[in-house]
Amino acid sequence: MALRVCVIGAGPAGMTAASVAAQNGFQTVLIEHGERVGRKILLTGNGKCNFTNLHLDESCYHAGTEKFAARALSHFGADDAVRWFRTLGIEPLEKHGGYLYPHSEQASSVLNALRSELDRTGVRVRTACNVKRITRRPDGVFRVQTDLEMIAADRIILAAGSRAASSTGSDGSGYDLASSLGHHIIEPHPALCALFCAEKDFFKAVAGVRVSGEIRLLLEGGEAERAAGEIQLNASGLSGIPTFQVSGAAGRALALGRRTEAAVNFLPDYSDLAEFLRKRASARPYGTLEALGNGLLNKSLWIALVKRAGLKPGTDPADLMEVEYHELADAVQNGRYRIIRTAGFEQAQTCSGGVDTSEVNPDTMESLLVPGLFFAGEILDVDGICGGYNLQWCWTSGHLAGGA
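-> structure tokens emitted (404 positions)
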């Protein structure tokens, strides 16, 4: 008789794990407490589903246990994901130097392919089904009590997600189930999200501006991470991909009470900005500092940065001293903004934290504490940067759990 597998959570990791387990001959049931499977997939990549990235290594992930993500990815990486999706009928489209999307550029294509695979492999799917508790009998059989039925299983795969994007059904209930079975939970924090800053007047003045630049995350004054790309400024602080890339580390630092700042370079292409501005001012009579910045940066942003440097926009650049040019350049390229909090879980794309990875086998995703219990996806203390890395983690951990 085939072993019985119960997968809890029908997001990208759970759908993957269930279809792989069924493909390998296991009698598989997939439980989802929402009305539909795979809702979160539809939101990924702005609805286009950036499902992996060709530039994949351990530096793209934060995991509580060193090398945990790297070990897992060595078994199922980006190339494996591409081959697998091709078998499901999804042809990849490369954009932005390594970002892979379905050729249709529709996230629904990926969801439809995964749903078809569940049907093909014979997975029994139960939606609108809430897990109340999981117990394990002395003979190793698990009893999964739901509000609809009791399910007996020889293996459990917990793929219930994190607390991020709660509108898709992620409510953190998987943490409670893992904890009830003896696992430790690293406190979750929002990741891939906006950052709120203390400089309210500055950000109100520049709200809505988008600019290509670089963000350096400073913890107690020392650089921890950096990221470049389009920075989005809003009335509360920083957003956009570079902000998202450093937000997980910022959230962890704030939780520890560390001084957390973002040093922002709004003109990263200029190696000696003070000298450039001085020569620019001497080349023609601009008349005002406001006019000096015309064509360099968005007008609202330039004026706000001039004020942050302690200067008046109406000042004639010809009257500036050398030190004032350096102060202006520093405000533009190295202004520090104190981070006071991250956006909440409902706005976050993923979470930092989750099931302690020191208690999980990175080669199989099996619990080191409870034989027959496996994990997949965001429920684990693994989070990636923007660019398809978190979905890749779902495919990787789902394949390892379902296959083992």
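The domain at 4-190+348-403 is CATH 3.50.50.60 (FAD/NAD(P)-binding domain).
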